Amino acid sequence: MHHISIRTADIHRAIAFYGLLGFTTEVQFTTGYSLACWLQGELGRIELIQIPEPKPAPDAFGDEHYVGYYHISFDLTELTESLPDWLAKLQTQSTESIKVLLKPQQQMIGDRIYEVMFLADPDGLPLEFIRLQGENS
Questions:
Q1: In what order do the strands lie in the sheet with 34-41?
Q2: What's the gap between Cα 88 and its chain centre?
Q3: Where are the beta strands (DSSP E) in the chain?
Q4: pLDDT digits 0-9 by tens, 80-116
Q5: Distance between CA atoms of 113 and 29, rounded to whole angstroms?
Q6: Which segments of the chain does DSSP mark as H helices, in order?
Q7: FRET label pair with 117: which of 13, 17, 97, 101, CA 20 to 30 Å apart?
């Protein structure tokens, strides 16, 4: 995958949030009449596009009948030993409250055991964070 593109109501707030996740601004530009930028980090590449007259995003996490984008998943296996510790550090670094949609918990996905949690970005888009804990033989 080359990148993920996210429309945002406030590009500066989104840049600050994704900066907490380790993303840095690679380039800023305009697309038509909108501000935009590329963010790069160990977790991948994100394009942010500011929407001049934003409408609230649908509740992709809470509405089980919603069809379309559900979440972006970031694998933190190589970056942390514990999602609760990673979340605590993130919350102390943030100047704004971080909305936790699902607290860190263990989850079996296929034959693998993961530590999983969900957060919302500043526009309410669900983000999943996973860490591989082992395989079930």
A1: 4-8, 44-50, 34-41, 24-31
A2: 16
A3: 4-8, 24-31, 34-41, 44-50, 72-75, 100-109, 112-120, 126-135
A4: 999 999 999 999 999 999 999 999 999 999 999 999 9
A5: 41
A6: 11-20, 83-93
A7: 13
Write down the domain spans for the chain: 1-52, 71-137
What letter does residue 81 receive in the DSSP assignment?
S
Query: What is the C-alpha separation between 86 and 63, in angstroms, rounded?
Result: 27
pLDDT tens-digit readout, 1-23:
899 999 999 999 999 999 999 99
Instruction: Kindly state the tokens that stand for 61.
Output: 């996490």
The pLDDT value recorded for residue 30 is 93
Architecture of domain 1-52: Roll (3.10)
Distances (CA, A) of 84 to 18, 104, 106: 18, 6, 11
Check if the beta carbon of residue 120 is closer than 8 Å to that of residue 97: no
Q: Do 1-52 and 71-137 come out as alike in CATH topology? A: yes
- pLDDT tens, residue by residue, 46-90: 999 999 888 887 888 888 887 888 899 999 999 999 999 999 999
- The third-level CATH classification (topology) of the domain covering 71-137 is 2,3-Dihydroxybiphenyl 1,2-Dioxygenase; domain 1 (3.10.180)
